[in-house]
Amino acid sequence: MRKIFAAVTAFGALAGAQGLGRRFSPTPDHARTRQWYEGLSKPSFTPPGPVFGVVWMGLDALIGYGGYRLLQAPPSEKRRIALWAWALSIAGIAGFPYVAFRERKLGEALGVSIGLIGTTGLAIGTASHVDRKAALSGLPLFGWLLFATLLQEELWRRNPAQAAPDA
């Protein structure tokens, strides 16, 4: 695959996922969602809102780079599996805000988080047989997902009745 096409594909898929996810996130332009999220009981280790944006900027660069590297790798069964797992991770990144913030289903959002750990782990594991840099670029996301899943579990446990039908 040509470098420019691989870059546009990888970063375009990621930008699309983030754009979809942002539509449902508790940002200043989504006042009701933000109010709902701010009203949740959160653990003391919940990062301040701006930290999420900074973290995701770095993660996005690494996720895009990993996808770009995989798209540039010679075709193989491991590459195909790594790309599918990478794509499923991107779909989960897009879907999590919908489930967590639009639908306000904290338990189901925990399931999405756990699924993201699985798909990201699979992407890293299979990418390690295809392109070492692509695999390494996924490790920060994997670490963040472990933390985010712990955070999501705490939100779900602390707020069992917080799903709002009028979202």
Helices and strands in order, then pairings?
Layout: H1 3-22, H2 31-38, H3 49-72, H4 77-102, H5 106-127, H6 132-137, H7 139-158
Helix pairs in contact: 1-3, 1-4, 3-4, 4-5, 5-7
Description:
The structure is a single chain. Helix 1 packs parallel to helix 4 and helix 5 packs antiparallel against helix 7. This protein starts with a helix and ends in a 9-residue tail after the last helix. The protein contains 7 helices and no strands. The protein has helices spanning 3-22, 31-38, 49-72, 77-102, 106-127, 132-137, 139-158. The protein has 167 residues and is mainly α. It is 75% helix and 0% strand. The protein is elongated. The model has no long low-confidence stretch (mean pLDDT 93).
- Please bin the fraction of helical residues: over 70%
Approximately how much beta-strand content do the residues carry? Answer: under 5%
The secondary structure category is mainly alpha
Q: How many E strands?
A: 0
Mean pLDDT: 93
Low-confidence stretches: none
SSE pattern, N- to C-terminal: HHHHHHH
Describe the biggest sheet? Answer: none
| Secondary structure tally, helices | 7
What does this entry show, briefly?
With 167 residues, this protein is mainly alpha-helical. Helices cover 75% and strands 0% of the residues. The protein contains 7 helices and no strands.
Feature tags:
mainly alpha, 7 helices, 75% helix, 0% strand
